[in-house]
Amino acid sequence: MKTYLRISPKDNVAVALAPLPSGTTVELNGLSLILKDEIPQGHKFALTDIPEGSQIIKYGYPIGLATENIPSGSWVHTHNIRTGLGDLLTYTYDRQVTELSTTPERFFQGFRRPDGKVGVRNELWIIPTVGCVNNVATAIERRARNLVTGTVEAVAAFPHPYGCSQMGEDQENTRRILADLISHPNAGGVLVLGLGCENSNIDVLKEYIGTYDPRRVKFLVCQDSDDEIEDALELLRDLAAYAGTFQREPVSCSELVIGMKCGGSDGLSGITANPTVGAFSDLLISKGGTTILTEVPEMFGAETQLMDRCENEELFTQTVDLINDFKQYFKSHGQTIYENPSPGNKKGGISTLEDKSMGCTQKSGTAPVSGVLAYGEQVHEKGLNLLSAPGNDLVASTALAASGAHIVLFTTGRGTPFASPVPTIKISTNNRLNEKKNNWIDFNCGTLVEGGTLDELRDRFFDYVISVASGEQVKSEKAGFHDMAIFKQGVTL
């Protein structure tokens, strides 16, 4: 088993794949050094003497600047490295696009909808228009569980605190996300539950939903009902009867849309799980499928790699706006743009935002960027898409689902039990997490440091995703979890 790794020949640091005691002799490509410090798993150590003010190179790119002279063999972390990033930047398009070769078609067992869309689940969703009816929605969910029969796979309510007393873009966010979820093909039937006096009431929301199938989407205004729970159950029985007419059938994976997100990252994220997801993304796209990468603040420091992979200058300009608009969002709220990574990230070995971003963007693979999406915008281009959303796990995963992702891939070095509106596959970066929180983790990439190839792990992971798309439940689904969260912007009344 390898115990340390130099990711790129350009790097002046290596990463400990296992805890390394002080005094360990390290030999790498003709280099020989003795560790001066104990190096925790996922953390970095210097391969050469690094003078104060010099760049720290990892993944072949700068991830920060040395704040002091760092002798060879020393631990490199937050005590002796700082970010080298600035505020708003001017970018130049340097097109470096590598087209992927087409690979043979694969199929999963999905639900074909009358509008041509495909779902990987056949669930009944209860979507409140406003937080005032959250408890009613969850009560209806409990009462309706007996409707899970035949091909109806779950009943899920999605409570949230919004829908009223919101202004401007903040209110638009709520309406767009709710409308997107109502239209999501993983739901065979949807009950939209309103109060009646809210800003984002059902009549307003219908303008955002557009054309809908009345067999699939039904509405209930609680203030107009004598007994909203009984009336809702009657509507759900009709929806269940309709949803129950759908059967799984073979569907080309060219119709799969997969969201990609990471959280609780560690120093192995960019070495094991994220490259595996990136390799998966390339493979799915080579078969005609679609992936979506989000959490824009965690592209800062690696954004030029994504910009140069844009298929054309228009997409490049959209990506520049994606990055700088999010930076401006932070500035407008008096926040430091580069106040990242989190305490958990640092404990796992990530020292700066550049360090985190370089690892994060490994999930994008090598495919060209074919689309750039605003928050709440549904995907319309096959291939790799970039989506505007924050780094918050719940918000970003919900945004991926709202944009059309059938499944979310979530890599993590520390673990989390949360779900999203769609199946959320938890992918561990290290073996310890997989062993400790096996009730959370669906797939372990920590084995990559023990041997085997990235291609082998990618293929095994691809098979697993196909099985989930065909109905195999992930751990959070088995626990009965369905979560959603909306990006909070602006002010409330």
Structural class: alpha/beta
Oligomer: single chain
Distance between the termini: 59 Å
Mean pLDDT: 95
Report the biggest beta sheet as strand number plus sense, adding barrel if it closes: 7 strands, parallel
Placed side by side, the strands forming the largest sheet appear as 19-20-18-17-21-22-23
Your description of this structure?
The chain is α/β, with parallel strands linked by helices and 493 residues long. Helix content is 28%, strand content 20%. It contains 13 helices and 23 strands. The chain has helices at 134-143, 168-182, 202-209, 228-243, 273-286, 303-308, 313-332, 343-347, 353-360, 393-402, 431-436, 454-469, 475-478; strands at 4-5, 13-16, 25-28, 31-34, 44-46, 55-58, 61-66, 75-76, 81-82, 107-112, 118-119, 123-128, 155-157, 187-194, 217-221, 248-252, 257-262, 290-293, 369-373, 383-387, 407-412, 424-428, 443-444. The strands form 6 sheets. It has a 7-stranded parallel beta sheet with strand order 19-20-18-17-21-22-23, sandwiched between helices. The chain has a 4-stranded antiparallel beta sheet with strand order 1-2-5-8, with no helix packed on it. Helix 2 packs across helix 3 (202-209) and helix 5 (273-286) packs across helix 12. The model has no long low-confidence stretch (mean pLDDT 95).
